[in-house]
Amino acid sequence: WQVWAIYMLLAANLSEQQALKQACPSCNDAQLCNCSAMGLDFIPPGLTAKITMLNLAHNRIKHIRSQDLQQAVNLRALLLQSNKISSIDEGSFQSLAKLELLDLSNNSLAHLSPVWFEHLFSLQHLHLQGNFYRDLGESSPFSGLRNLSSLRLGNPRFSVIRQGNFESMEFVNQLWIDGGNLSQYEQGSLKLIKQINHMIINLRNSDIFSEIVRDLLHSVTWLEVREIILAVETKSLVQNSTRPFRMQKLTCKDAFFTDQSISRLLVLLKEITSLRELEAIDCVLEGKGLWDTKEITRSGQSFVETISIINLMIQNFYLFFDLEGMESQINKLKRLTIESSKVFMVPCKLARHFSSLLYLDFNDNLLVNNRLDETICKGAWPSLQTLNLSQNSLRSLKQTAKYISRLPKLNNLDISQNNFGEIPDACDWPKNLTYLNLSSTQIPKVTACIPQTLEVLDISANNLKEFGLQLPHLKELYLTKNQLKTLPGAAPIPNVAVMSVRRNKLNSFSKEEFEGAQVGAVHLSVMECHRSLVVSLICILVFLVILILVAVGYKYHAVWYLRMTWAWLQAKRKPKRAPPKDICYDAFVSYSENDSNWVENVMVQELEQACPPFRLCLHKRDFVPGKWIVDNIIDSIEKSHKTLFVLSEHFVQSEWCKYELDFSHFRLFDENNDAAILVLLEPIQSKTIPKRFCKLRKIMNTKTYLEWPLGEEQQQMFWENLKRALKS
């Protein structure tokens, strides 16, 4: 009996391992088990202690049973996102004491149970967003997760946060809450967490935003609020809170502001004395800059040192006011970024009050030369050290340099991706300029316009054919993507330690080019150093590659071509038409995978739901599993009354579509019948069809085919014509 019991146990284990291998081939004796997007309805049996990472995402799993993961005791990561999980047995995760990542996002969980997580002592990352639960219950589902570092929760139905929901959570590195429809927040709920490095919350309710800010003043370092429609707040954001505060950075992303709401927000944020950085990304400002500057000024000095505004949408940006009256609020600012926001000018009066600004980034805006005189007027930006004007509409390098020379402390300048086109013989620059980026500016040569004070120069992606400047202090030189045929001489740039000359037209080096310079690290290709040796090696390698290709082709592809030829000969011997009793489909549909959306969601819906419905054969749905694909193609064509080709540019590039044409060519076009229906999903030239399908090319030139129209009125006529063709 003992032998029999052992035998039965081994047989059961072997059966489970075979089931696992069949359900998920990558799990066979592997630590990383990837079973994603395999159409699984359940967690496959046979999981062992060898597995440390299990990916079951994008399947159809609805239920997790207590025994499903019982043997996977060494699991570190479990990915179950994007399934249909609606229920989890209480002991399902009981054996996963080593689990560090659990992703249950985008499922159908209607509630969260603390019992699920109580044995996950090592869990650091928990993703629960995108489910169906409306709240977190009356207490905390996460109280036992002492090592939790990141938590993601919430969904469009999530509407309530209660006191106690985050009890016993002392430290979280990142907390992400999808609360776009949050309507109830019990004050003090988030206050239980003592420290949060980065909190992201999707939130539209402006009142709840204020309550959450008050609760997070002493715990969060960086607060990121998304999708908020900011109303005019009247209450203080700090109220009776005591200093010091922890909050240092506030980000608003995809937010909506008005002149009134942003004016009030600027006043209230001054109360958060720890706040040093404000950031607005992809936001919309409805207004013209009519801010209440008097109230803003009366509220005192701001403590913010860094402001970043990226892709701000102001519908009538050209009507925006010059923010007169804000001068007193900007004199302590140290870093300012306004990127991709259609800035075309900064008034001189305002620019002169940025007295402490060290870094200014105007990348990807609408600055032009005739407005730059106003933006960088005399006395403006007096402390500026770094300036980025890349990707604007500057056209004159001489004028640009002239205005920039008014910045006495500037040492880093980026004016790349401006279409200067020409470079003058001389330019005025700041005396302390050490870094200059002139890449992608269409300059054809270098002249004495380039300042001799530079330590770093980037002139990549231009049209330079030579470089002969004398730059005695230069340490780094970037010449990538030019037309250089020889290296720059060593004598004019004696201190260069880094030089990039990739993607030029260099073909040789001479000793003179390196004479007098000590080369520390030069990265030269073998071709540049040993041309004859390299040619010999290339010939040997080519010969070896040919031998390897022949061997690999013989080993892996000979059987394929033999089977393909045999299938072709078999198909040739078959009768030209199958008996009517063997016809199973009205049409076999040949199409590219790139056109599957139109075929499966538009055409199939229209034809298979018609009255009477048409029976279509699709390779995804109707091919016999396990059968050789070539046999599937031939049998499907023979068992179909028609063959419908959905032609597009993707079709003629698809290898499998070419195989389907290969095996249908002699069946459909050598018989001189109307078994083929051509549907043009997009305009296509017959010459783009492979030349070996000469009759198909001829038919496209002589036979009427159906074109998919864009207009809805013509589409009805298209369906009628297609149905008529299928019935013929």
From TrEMBL:
The keyword Cell wall biogenesis/degradation does not apply. Pfam families: LRR_8, TIR. The chain crosses the membrane at residues 533-554. One of its GO terms (biological process) is toll-like receptor signaling pathway. Its main location: membrane. It is found in: Membrane. InterPro entries: Leu-rich_rpt, Leu-rich_rpt_typical-subtyp, LRR_dom_sf, TIR_dom, Toll-like_receptor, Toll_tir_struct_dom_sf. Residues 583-726 form the TIR domain. This is TLR21 protein.
